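Postdoc handover notes: sequence design on the structure in folder B. Input tokens:
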């Protein structure tokens, strides 16, 4: 069973790193949106293409546009923190019990 425990521990670590990386991409997208970026810049296009599908879904379900401020990145970051706290920690605890 220790092999499955180690596998779950590795999965939890990879999920945690992936969620952290995506959170920083969302932060970069939010910071870039404060200025008038060149829409043809490859970095801007990458950030938009990676984050827009999820942010669009949040905007569509929760229309929280108060005074021209888009709160969808904030909500997605809170969801990522929740997943890191709940899912990753649960996987790590389950992996520890299996070892």
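Designed sequence:
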């Amino acid at each position: 069973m220790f092999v499955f425990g180690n596998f779950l521990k590795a999965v939890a670590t990879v999920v945690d790193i992936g969620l952290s990386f995506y959170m920083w991409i969302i932060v970069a997208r939010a910071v870039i949106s404060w200025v008038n970026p060149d829409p043809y810049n490859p970095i801007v296009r990458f950030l938009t293409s990676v984050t827009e599908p999820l942010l669009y879904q949040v905007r569509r379900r929760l229309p929280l546009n108060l005074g021209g401020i888009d709160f969808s990145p904030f909500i997605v970051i809170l969801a990522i923190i929740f997943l890191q706290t709940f899912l990753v920690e649960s996987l790590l605890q389950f992996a520890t019990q299996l070892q």
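Context for whoever picks this up: The mean pLDDT is 91. Don't rerun without checking with the PI first.
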